[in-house]
């Protein structure tokens, strides 16, 4: 696009191509074209066209942060701008959902292609009489072994200790878990009997049956790893009626809890960093993948916790399918205003 063409597009939608940092839609506000210099465009960002690339640091893979936010005014070189042939009527949030779904579908295609390539390679190995350890039967057996090993390692084992007048648990990697205010469910053995319960206070645990246990230093405890899963924590935080409504909506989309792909639990982060706050609000982002494709769920939450009265709880679940269909489920407890 040259500067003359850009002048005719003022007030219209253009695309901003930031290469590895993604692509965006925005309204062209002004063309800045000083003599004998590269022209620039001033744009108001309206939507996301394509997500940024993944970045890898060692074993960690993350998406680059979004370069621009909704309604942000930017300036960029004219070489980054192009004409938009279609009308962009969705909101910034809706466009971000669509871009995310598009990336999921791309990853699915890559994964399916890789599986076909692995199958072709296995056939090649068989035809040429190469190492039989690459055969499907052997590979499947190794997968079964790994899955069994993982099932046996579904818990984290801790040792009970006291450090600077604080009671703590330490795992095999010397990671410390402070017990004061810890919400996790623990399992322990005492006098040959197994118990499940919670930490109470002053180095004392209480089982679900109401039996208190004051362990000696060095006593062993374990935690089921699923308790560290953000989605598991989110489900446990919901009121029974809210969870039931959520599960019914999942079923109507052909989904169960097993179809969860990713869970961003913003509420958990707020609760862990509460520091005296009793009001929490925000959005959790959940991604599911089923036979009907990808479904994004935005869980809008509002919590006001009270010491001497009932808590006020509000939940709204917004379902969006990759076909663009939306459904909303709302829950409010009787104590909310």
Layout of secondary structure:
Layout: H1 3-7, E1 13-17, E2 23-32, E3 40-50, E4 54-57, E5 60-63, E6 73-77, E7 81-83, H2 92-127, H3 136-152, E8 155-163, E9 166-171, E10 176-178, E11 186-190, E12 193-201, E13 204-207, E14 212-213, E15 220-224, H4 230-237, H5 240-252, E16 260-264, H6 266-272, E17 279-290, E18 293-304, E19 312-321, E20 326-332
Give short descriptive properties of this protein.
SH3 type barrels; alpha+beta; globular; 337 residues; 4 domains; 20 strands
Description:
Pfam families: DUF2777 (PF10949). InterPro entries: DUF2777. With 337 residues, the chain is of the alpha+beta class. It folds into four domains: 3-89, SH3 type barrels, CATH 2.30.30; 106-152, no CATH class; 155-225; 230-332, no CATH class. It is 26% helix and 39% strand. The chain has helices at 3-7, 92-127, 136-152, 230-237, 240-252, 266-272, and strands at 13-17, 23-32, 40-50, 54-57, 60-63, 73-77, 81-83, 155-163, 166-171, 176-178, 186-190, 193-201, 204-207, 212-213, 220-224, 260-264, 279-290, 293-304, 312-321, 326-332. The strands form five sheets. The chain has a five-stranded antiparallel sheet. A hairpin with a 2-residue loop joins strand 12 and strand 13 (204-207). The longest helix has 36 residues, at 92-127.
């Amino acid at each position: 696009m040259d500067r003359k063409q850009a002048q005719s597009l003022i007030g219209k939608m253009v695309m901003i191509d930031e290469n590895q940092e993604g692509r965006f839609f925005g309204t062209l506000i002004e063309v800045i074209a000083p003599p004998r210099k590269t022209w620039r465009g001033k744009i108001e960002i309206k939507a996301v066209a394509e997500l940024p690339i993944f970045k890898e640091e060692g074993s960690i893979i993350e998406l680059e942060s979004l370069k621009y936010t909704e309604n942000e005014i930017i300036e960029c070189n004219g070489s980054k701008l192009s004409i938009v042939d279609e009308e962009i009527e969705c909101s910034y949030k809706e466009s971000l959902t669509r871009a995310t779904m598009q990336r999921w579908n791309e990853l699915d295609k890559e994964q399916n292609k890789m599986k076909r390539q692995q199958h072709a390679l296995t056939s090649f190995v068989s035809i040429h009489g190469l190492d039989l350890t690459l055969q499907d039967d052997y590979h499947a057996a190794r997968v079964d072994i790994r899955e069994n090993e993982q099932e046996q390692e579904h818990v984290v084992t801790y040792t009970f200790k006291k450090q600077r007048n604080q009671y703590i648990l330490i795992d095999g990697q010397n990671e410390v878990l402070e017990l004061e205010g810890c919400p996790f469910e623990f399992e322990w053995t005492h006098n040959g009997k197994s118990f499940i319960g919670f930490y109470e206070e002053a180095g004392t645990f209480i089982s679900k049956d109401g039996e208190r246990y004051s362990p000696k230093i060095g006593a062993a405890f374990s935690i089921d790893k699923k308790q560290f899963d953000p989605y598991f924590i989110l489900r446990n935080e919901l009121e029974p009626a809210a969870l039931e409504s959520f599960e019914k909506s999942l079923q109507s989309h052909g989904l169960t809890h097993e179809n969860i792909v990713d869970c961003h639990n913003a509420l958990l982060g707020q609760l862990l960093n509460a520091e005296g706050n009793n009001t929490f609000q925000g959005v959790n982002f959940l991604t599911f993948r089923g036979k009907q494709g990808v479904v994004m769920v935005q869980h809008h939450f509002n919590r006001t916790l009270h010491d001497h009265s009932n808590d006020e709880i509000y939940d709204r679940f917004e379902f969006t399918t990759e076909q663009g269909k939306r459904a909303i489920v709302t829950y409010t407890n009787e104590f909310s205003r």
